[in-house]
Structure formats: C-alpha cells, structure tokens
C-alpha cells in the first residue's frame, strides 16, 4: 500500500460541473504530455468538448495519450476513436473484445479508473467519466459524483501508474517496447500541506490496497463513518467492519443509490439492508439524481475519493484508483458536501419501514442477491471473498 506523502495541494471537485472546467483548463495549458484514462467516453456535448481539447493538445505538438475501457467505451470506439487518432491523439482500448453476457473472470476485469495527468504537474483522480452531467432520467439535477485536482508529490504516484498501464496495454496490443520514457517528468516539489496517498487495485501486487485502506479506517473509527457509494455489495469482512463500528457506538451512515441505473445490483444491495439496519447502521437512499459517488469520511479526518465502488467487481476484478487524504480541512469539505446531499436529496430508511416492504419487492431483492452471488461464483470467486 502506498504511504502518505506530505506537501500536496488538493481541490475537491463536486460533479462534472466543477470537474470538466478544471480538466479542460489544464488540458489547454499543456505543453508536453497528457495522459487520460476513463471507463466511459461518451459522444455527447461533454465528450466532444474533451475530445476537442485533446486534439488541440496534439496540434500544439504535445504527446496526448488516451486509454479507454473496451466495454464502457464501446460507443467511443465506434464514434470518436478514428477522428481523435486522425487528429494526432494516441488512443488505446483496454480489453477491446468483450462478450456482453460473459461471466468469465478475464472478461469482467475492466479498466474502471478515471485519471488524468498533465505535464507531470497536475493530476485528476475520481469517479467521473467523460459523459454529460445530466441524465435523461433526472434532468433537473446533475449526476452526483466527485473528483479531485492534485499537485505535489502525489502526482508522481499517479503518473507512474498511468504510464505503466499505458506501456502494458501498448505492449499487449502492438508489442511495442516497454521502456519508452516520459516527455514530462513529475514535479515532486511540495506545494501544499496535505498528506495523501494514491492507491490502486490491480490483479498483481495491489489486489486489496483500497479495501484494506477502508477497513483500517473503519476499524480505527471512534465517532463517525460516512460512505457514499453508487454500487454497494460488500463482502463479509466489510459488512462485519461496519457492524462492529456501529456496535462500538460509531455513527455509521451509508448514502446509496435510490434511482438505480443497474437495477439488479441495486436490488441485490437492498437484500443486505435488514441485517445492516438491525445492527445500527443508518441507511439513506439518494433520489435527487443518479448517485455515482465513491467517497468516504471517517472521524472528520480521514477521507477517500476515487473510482472504486464497494462491490465485488471493483474490489476483486476491476482496475481502480483512489486517493486517501488525512487532513481535517479536506475531510470537513467532503463531509459538508455529503451532509448537503443527505439533507437535500436523500431519504433515510428505518427498520420499521423496511419491514413493511411489499412481498414482491422483498422477493425481487432476494432473487437479485442470489443472481449476483452466482455471478461472483462463476467469475471464480468463492465464499472466502
């Protein structure tokens, strides 16, 4: 697990309304080298804005490298890839060949990270895809998500990760050399006061780094744990950590999806509600728009922002990236944002309300739960996970 590095400047970015202007500003200021990784790159107004900025960067003579997941970016491959390559942007697709209904483990190992590094100077880490903020199902309010802008020593960690994955995917696709140097070396100078670490999840040395960071923070909690998570289907270790924290008198608050863009997983998550509620975990569902956040605050000091959900696909299969921050000011800003979401867009679920659920809804949740467990098993993961 990466150690905390001091001397960083971090800016919390809520929703694409804050993220995309910041990202576009840095891309347009780039002189030498841009890396961008994303799971989804949609051909909509936002996607075309980002694509145009990348093309401008290449036209200025910079090296622009874009890595898009082959499943999440299927429409990108059809509609945007050729044009960007013609404009001089280097594009790679992570695991291009996908059978949508396959549950084989290697088919489910997606590149779910959302990262950008510009000139080795500034990095972006979070959960926001390249897609319009507003969804047709909830047009009044933006999709609820977070990213952060980083400067300082942590940028070197992010740059090393994107450069390494670019070389691996490049070699796998075209058998290119793995030792191609960076054009813009990372700037490691201290520019702020925050202590932060960059964590990844892969299938080699970092299989459990993000999950272990969560579990360690929850295990140390003495006052409060607040987690906002789009896709929530934790394993036994994680459920036990939450329940034990609640048993110690810690306020454990979960903000989960109310509007579901993946109904099967949402219903499977709801099958866990009775057990969590019975042990003092407070559950809220967000209905104002689609919740896509993957963040947490513990005891007003420890915080994380990133791409990793708390479900088997993020914690056991996908490539993910989070930043962990130990700073009261940053944690306070994220907690205040989450509190607004809880008060303005969420409904708390009480045990008595859940007991009054219709039989059909309970049956739907149970069936979805069994289906997701079966999918995990077919992917090659047993009860120990």
Give an overview in words:
- The structure is a single chain.
- With 385 residues, this protein is of the alpha+beta class.
- The protein is built from 14 helices and 15 strands.
- The protein has helices at 15-29, 45-59, 74-79, 81-86, 105-108, 154-174, 209-220, 236-247, 263-270, 273-278, 312-317, 328-345, 351-355, 359-378; strands at 5-14, 33-38, 63-69, 90-94, 114-118, 122-126, 146-151, 194-201, 224-229, 251-257, 282-286, 294-298, 302-306, 320-326, 346-349.
- A 15-stranded mixed sheet has the order 4-3-2-5-6-7-1-8-14-13-12-9-10-11-15, with helices on both faces.
- The protein is globular, with a radius of gyration of 20 Å.
- The relative contact order is 0.15.
- The mean pLDDT is 89.
Layout of strands and helices, then pairs:
Elements: E1 5-14, H1 15-29, E2 33-38, H2 45-59, E3 63-69, H3 74-79, H4 81-86, E4 90-94, H5 105-108, E5 114-118, E6 122-126, E7 146-151, H6 154-174, E8 194-201, H7 209-220, E9 224-229, H8 236-247, E10 251-257, H9 263-270, H10 273-278, E11 282-286, E12 294-298, E13 302-306, H11 312-317, E14 320-326, H12 328-345, E15 346-349, H13 351-355, H14 359-378
Parallel strand pairs: 2-3, 3-4, 9-10, 10-11
Antiparallel strand pairs: 1-7, 1-8, 2-5, 5-6, 6-7, 8-14, 9-12, 11-15, 12-13, 13-14
Q: What descriptors fit this protein?
A:
385 residues; Endonuclease, Chain A; 2 domains; 14 helices; globular
């Amino acid at each position: 697990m990466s150690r905390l590095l001091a001397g960083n400047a971090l800016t919390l970015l809520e929703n694409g309304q804050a993220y995309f202007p910041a990202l576009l500003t840095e891309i347009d200021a780039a002189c030498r080298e841009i890396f961008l990784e994303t799971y989804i790159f949609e051909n909509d107004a936002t996607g075309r804005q980002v694509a145009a900025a990348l093309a401008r960067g290449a036209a200025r003579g910079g090296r622009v490298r874009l890595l898009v997941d082959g499943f999440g970016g299927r429409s990108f491959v059809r509609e945007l890839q050729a044009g960007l390559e013609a404009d001089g942007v280097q594009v790679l697709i992570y695991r291009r060949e996908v059978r949508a209904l396959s549950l084989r483990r290697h088919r489910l190992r997606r590149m779910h990270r959302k990262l950008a590094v510009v000139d080795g100077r500034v990095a972006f880490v979070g959960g926001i895809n390249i897609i319009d903020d507003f969804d047709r199902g909830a047009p009044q309010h933006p999709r609820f998500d977070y990213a952060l802008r980083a400067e300082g020593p942590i940028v070197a960690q992010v740059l090393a990760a994107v450069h390494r994955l670019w070389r691996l995917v490049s070699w796998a696709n075209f058998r290119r050399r793995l030792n191609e140097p960076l054009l813009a070396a990372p700037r490691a100078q201290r520019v702020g006061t925050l202590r932060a670490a960059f964590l990844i999840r892969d299938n080699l040395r970092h299989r459990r780094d993000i999950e272990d960071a969560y579990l360690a923070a929850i295990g140390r909690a003495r006052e409060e744990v607040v987690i906002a998570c789009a896709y929530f289907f934790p394993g036994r270790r994680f459920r036990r950590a939450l329940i034990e924290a609640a048993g110690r008198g810690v306020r454990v608050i979960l903000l989960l999806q109310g509007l579901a863009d993946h109904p099967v997983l949402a219903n499977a998550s709801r099958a866990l509600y009775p057990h969590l509620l019975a042990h003092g975990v407070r559950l809220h569902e967000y209905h104002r728009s689609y919740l896509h956040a993957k963040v947490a605050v513990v005891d007003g000091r420890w915080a994380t922002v990133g791409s990793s959900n708390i479900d088997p696909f993020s914690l056991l299969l996908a490539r993910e990236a989070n930043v962990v921050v130990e700073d009261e000011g940053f944690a306070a800003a994220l907690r205040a944002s989450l509190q607004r979401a809880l008060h303005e867009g969420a409904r708390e679920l009480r045990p008595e309300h859940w007991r009054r659920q219709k039989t059909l809804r309970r049956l739907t949740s149970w069936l979805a739960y069994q289906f997701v467990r079966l999918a995990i098993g077919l992917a090659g993961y047993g009860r120990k996970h």
